[in-house]
Amino acid sequence: MRAAILRTYHEPLAIEDVPHPDCPPDGVVLKVLACGVCRSDWHGWVGEHPRVKPGQIGGHEYCGEVVEAGPQATHAVGDLLIAPFILACGTCPQCRSGAQNTCLDQRLPGFIEPGAFAEYVAVPRDHNLARLPEGMAPTLAAALGCRVTTAWHALTGRAALAGGEWLAVHGTGGIGLSAALLGRALGARVVVVDVVQEKLDHALSLGIDSAVMAGEDTAARIREITGGGAHVSVEALGIPATVNASLECLRPLGRHVQVGMPVGHTARMEVDMSAVYQGNLALFGTRGMPSWRYSSLLALIESGAVDLAPMIAREVALSDVSAELAAFDGPTPPGVAVITDFTC
Prior knowledge:
Elements: E1 2-5, E2 14-17, E3 28-36, H1 39-45, E4 61-69, E5 80-82, H2 93-96, E6 120-123, E7 130-131, H3 138-141, H4 147-158, E8 166-170, H5 174-185, E9 189-194, H6 197-205, E10 210-213, H7 218-226, E11 230-235, H8 240-248, E12 250-258, H9 273-279, E13 282-285, H10 294-302, E14 312-317, H11 321-327, E15 336-341
Parallel strand pairs: 8-9, 8-11, 9-10, 11-12, 12-13, 14-15
Antiparallel strand pairs: 1-2, 3-4, 3-6, 3-15, 4-5, 5-7
């Protein structure tokens, strides 16, 4: 099968023929129908993700059809499935408490084992996977493995965003735009922040209430727009400027949610702890989503309460992945890229 393989950090991926994956006893092999290209893939590609090493097949946002099922699998050949990027064991104390995204024994295709930048991907622990809702395109469903699920859990599982509250979203890439759209669906008023005017205009065209060009007065502008500060603020980049703007834009008792990945040179940063102290703020970290929460997210989408299709900006081929990764070196245009052609 064809796969895109990391051979050298920050260099084009090698498109190679590799052996078909073996089927895990407790999982399935999927024919990949779609796979998103995510900023987390970029962190690995540039060498800043501690788990991604040369030889890795990336890709963790995938949707596929079961072509082989192991003897302990819960799904069958022909099923169309979507997968969270964290494959939880289901038996450790974290999993038993319902927090599978903090599993003590995680499997991570695309990071430490072969991912879905390939025609086929082996997925162990298929009890984590969910069936593709009828009528949902695989192109959109691919985003439900990382960006959308992470945003959903950040808003509902961590910050407990309520209708009528103000939500600020710093960065309108895949996760940020997901958070903004889901926030609106939950009844919140939403202000987004970015450095690309085209992305701000795109968000406004989708019904987002307000937009702010990032700069020295970002927090002050949000406090003005929201009449005293956001109730919840999502940081979707993982860099000091946006982390601190997120903290400083909150009203007293506000909730900051760290969704952006601080890794590599941003793993440690200076943070305005005075804003936390003075504002009595709550800080939440979040990564992924417990697989049992798919039902609530899918129900919201199937009800028509939120349209996530505008997130998908372009469908690309496997050979285009390197160019998409390189685009994350600087500000990106609106929307996300999804691989749908794995033959070239």
